[in-house]
Amino acid sequence: PDTKSNGNKVDSRRKRSKRSRSSSSSSSSSSSGSDSDEDKRKKVRSNGKNKSMSKSPSKKVGNNESGTSSGKTYDYMTKLNYLFRDTRFFLIKSNNADNVEISKKDGVWATLPQNEANLNQAFRESRNVLLIFSVNESGKFAGFARMSAESNKSLEQPKWVLPPTISAKSLGGVITIDWICHKELPFINTQH
Fold first, then answer.
1. How far apart are CA 58 and CA 120, in angstroms?
2. Residue 16 located in a structural domain
3. Could you tell me if residue 157 is inside a domain?
4. Among 18, 65, 103, 152, which is least packed by CB within 10 angstroms?
5. Pairing of the two strands 140-147 and 185-186
6. Element housing 5 (H / E)
């Protein structure tokens, strides 16, 4: 068999025509459909593309024993693809773990005005802005959240635990965020 894509198309047509001649019309229509999907997967592998692409949930239309499709993996992958499409990422370093816990509880964050301007601009220009949190000197990530709105100076600031060099008045507006992951992840478990 030819490994070029044109050759594979011709070769798969030959296989289908041989199958249709050797089987009845009712069984050939059902078997050629599934074999066609199988042939497509083999083509993807033979063309040197990533094998995981052939198992992609978006291409896989599988039914479980009850006849209903199992879409859990598809939904998860769809959400991830949506989340990371046109996304800006920012690493947020907090002076202490207390502020990160307040943020997780209240779903808000505040930062200095120069950082706030960068976050607001990213929020206006991209589909998603993800904030990856880490506490200084902790050696780990504290989780990540998605900005759900630009900063708002009319919202009340939570009782942040601030270092003596920063006053609450020097902070910008309150940024509303949706926490996606609350788990901590040590730096040694990542490649960054």
1. 33
2. no
3. yes
4. 65
5. antiparallel
6. helix 5-22
Closest CA to 73 of 62, 89, 88, 84: 62
Tell me, what's the pLDDT at 70?
52
- What is d(CA 37, CA 31) in angstroms, rounded to the nearest whole number? 10
The pLDDT assigned to 75 comes to 80
Burial class of residue 104 in the structure, from the number of CB atoms within 10 Å of its CB (0-12 exposed, 13-18 middle, 19+ buried): middle
Structure tokens at 13: 């047509």
107 is in which domain, residue-wise? 88-189
The total number of structural domains in the chain stands at 1
- CATH code of the domain containing 103: 3.10.590.10
User: Phi then psi for 56, rounded to 5 degrees?
Assistant: -60, 130
Gap between the Cα atoms of 173 and 150, Å rounded:
9
**Phi, psi for 88 (deg, rounded to 5):** -105, 140
In order of 26, 54, 92, 176, the CA distances from 145 in angstroms are 53, 31, 10, 10
* Model confidence band, residue 166 (pLDDT cutoffs 50, 70, 90): confident
User: In the chain, what is the straight-line distance between the N-terminal and C-terminal CA atoms, in Å?
Assistant: 44
Confidence check: pLDDT of 154 > 80: yes
What is the full DSSP assignment across 124-159? HHSSEEEEEEEETTSSEEEEEEEE-S--BTTSPPP-
Give the tokens for residue 10: 């011709």
